[in-house]
Amino acid sequence: MKLEWEGEEEDRLAAIRAAEERHRLEQHVTGKPIVIANEFSEVQVTRIETRNGSRLLIKSPRSGQWVTLCPLELESLTWQAPATFSAMIGHPFGPLVAEDE
Description:
Layout (H helix, E strand, L loop, with lengths): L7 H19 L2 E9 L4 E9 L2 E7 L6 E4 L1 H7 L4 H9 L11
Protein name: Dihydrodiol dehydrogenase
Organism: Kocuria oceani
């Protein structure tokens, strides 16, 4: 007997696409990764070159999560108040703003 859940196949295909995308991005690494860690978290930050310019690839080895950010997205972090980051940390692995907003 195999247990399955609604959306399992979609989740599987999304994970495959994400892994392929990360692999493609990692082919364009510039320089050595920087690892930043403390007792709560660890991230690896790598600069990658894309056809639209430089981006940062930020990976969490523990969770397997990753994101790429362009310079404008990175700058937008400087516009945030500490409460924004507290809200993000308070609801991990979920969006801060609902998709339909």
